[in-house]
Amino acid sequence: MDQFPNFKLFIDKYLPWLAVIGFVVTVSANGNVWLYFMAVLIVFVVVAIIDLLFKYWNLAKILGIMIVLLVLGLWLNR
Q: Do residues 31 and 77 lie in contact, with contact meaning Cβ atoms separated by under 8 Å?
């Protein structure tokens, strides 16, 4: 994966923003945070497979953002 630095840069730069946008759209569309959570879970399975294949990715930052958004969404929709 080191031969594709632009791909890694794209992931590091835009994936957190995509997570935020997806969260806002999901909550504003139908208020179903669990739908967002399940989508995130599916994304993590895919990312974990990619991670095992390419062995370079730091997921801690993205995971932290996802958890914060989930907790915030559940709190807003209580």
A: yes
Find the radius of gyration of the CA atoms of the chain. Answer: 14
Collect the ranges in the chain with pLDDT lower than 50.
1
> Are residues 58 and 13 in contact, defined by beta-carbon separation less than 8 angstroms?
no
Please report, as a single letter, which amino acid is at residue 64: G
Distance CA 50, CA 72 (A): 28
Q: Per the confidence metrics, is the pTM higher than 0.85?
A: no
Instruction: Locate 77 and state its tokens.
Output: 């929709």
- Name 51's Cβ contacts closer than 8 Å, sequence gap at least 6: 57, 59
